Amino acid sequence: MEIFLSINDWFVGLIPAQITGLTKMVLIALAYLTLFAVLGLYLVLLERKVAAWFQLRIGPNRVGFKGLLQTMADALKLLSKELTGTVKADKFLYNLAPYFVIITSLMALGIFPFTQNLQAYDINIGLFFLIGISSIGVIGILLGGWSSNNKYSLIGAMRSGVQTISYELSIGLSLLTMVLITGSLQLSEIIEVQKNGWLIIQGHIPAVIAFMIYMIAGTAETNRAPFDMVEAESELGAGFHTEYSGMKFAYFFLAEFINMFIIAAIATTVFFGGWLSPFGITESLPWLGVFWFLLKTFILVFLMMWFRWTFPRLRVDQLLTLEWKYLLPINLGNLVIMALIVWLGLTLQF
Amino acid sequence: MESIIFYLLAAIMVIFAIASVSSRKMLRSVVYLLFVLIGIAGIYFLADYNFLAAVQLTVYAGGVIVLIIFSVLLVHHIEMRLEVASRKKQLITGLLCMSGLAVFLSVIYSYSFEVTGTSVTTTTAQIGEKLLDYGPGGFILPFEVISVLLLASMIGAIIIAKGEKTTKKHPTPGVSHNVKMMKVEQEQELQINPILNEKTPVETE
Lengths: 350, 205
What we know:
The complex is a heterodimer of chains A (350) and B (205).
Chain A: H1 2-14, H2 20-54, H3 70-80, H4 91-109, H5 126-147, H6 151-182, H7 187-193, H8 199-202, H9 204-221, H10 233-236, H11 246-271, H12 289-310, H13 316-344
Helix pairs in contact in A: 2-3, 2-11, 2-12, 3-11, 4-5, 4-11, 5-6, 6-9, 6-13, 9-11, 9-13, 11-12
Chain B: H1 2-22, H2 26-46, H3 50-75, H4 87-110, H5 124-131, H6 140-168, H7 177-204
Helix pairs in contact in B: 1-2, 2-3, 6-7
């Protein structure tokens, strides 16, 4: 961390004082954009490798060492592709839609604490902000589906709307269950509370139930299998982004993978202690926090990929039954149980 | 810096508000409305009302606009355009808007705003404590009244959505329409009354 601080001091000395704030903002934004792109590309590669592993294949192995540069090549291909579109599409909304999806996921990525000091913006309503931002992303999908002027896109967008509105409730309520223990929405404070044991251990039974509900709802929120009716290949072509090509398609694709990372990162922060090491084994080396954070997040990302390649797709009515008749009542009951446990002081503290 | 951001947000909101009411494509005007609402959230962020800003984003931008878009998707075709109102109506609306704006501006400019030296961030905990506070200045009564209102509207929505089924499932011959309607009303009352009775002790406190 000292290295960063000395770099910061050197940098601040270099430029005029009036524009340091602005320059810093721009540099941080650039760093996040780089992270965004690299993370997106390598999550795609990870997905392909995991899929291959589950299906007893080798997966991409030609470009670079063990296929590590495969997605770089894919990205270059997507960059150089021609942008096509339908003639009677609503051009303004058609071009606007990908940006909704990608900007909201980028904004959500900006507030995670990677270590104690490595956090771009520690907003005091952190968790609520994340829920609010994630509810805007679906507008991009709805607009993209409608403005493409294609019936498959439209059906995909409608399904996405139904799915996201329903499962947002479960995400919000399961996170609220955990907020009962932390007493704060600020992400840095949520991690501070977990120095006495990760929340999934502190809250024991209701916390585990909340975590399971969160992972189910999170998978549905990112439109991944088994909840991928939005882009069910066998029925809808490519769903809401059927008419998109080149970079605009890549935006949707990247945002989908980043959203998966965000869902896993929220779970890491709220349930598994964020950048805290297990049993405090590396407490003297705070910079290892990044490692622990990414390790936990990628384990959860792997869990979501595991879901995808294991379960078959649900029908729309099954999806809605699952949410409204099972997850939501369980969640509400769980919230009351958690409130009782916190009230009676039955949480496990170390 | 802050004043630049404020004027930027204000300009965005004014431009998109005008675009929203003047656009002839329905979904586009919804999207312009979305930009206005996000601009309002931006103003809240600028004033350090973080909680209110997040509520604005979640409820209006994420909830209301998604529902509006959803209903537009159901009824609207991509080539449809809204009809243009007649010249007379346009004139009347314009005049009414101008008079409203005049009243608004005259109130704003006649009031002398005081600049507070310190700005305090309202935390979520403070909002929660105030909301459930039944001492002087507490908001427990409005909070409970609003929750009863929301519950009643929710039950009403369910009754409306199920109305056809509940009345037409077992058509009893000879029962007139009025009696049927009275039955439905009685059912509604039966469902709402216990909830209302439950909440009354709170109001007396």
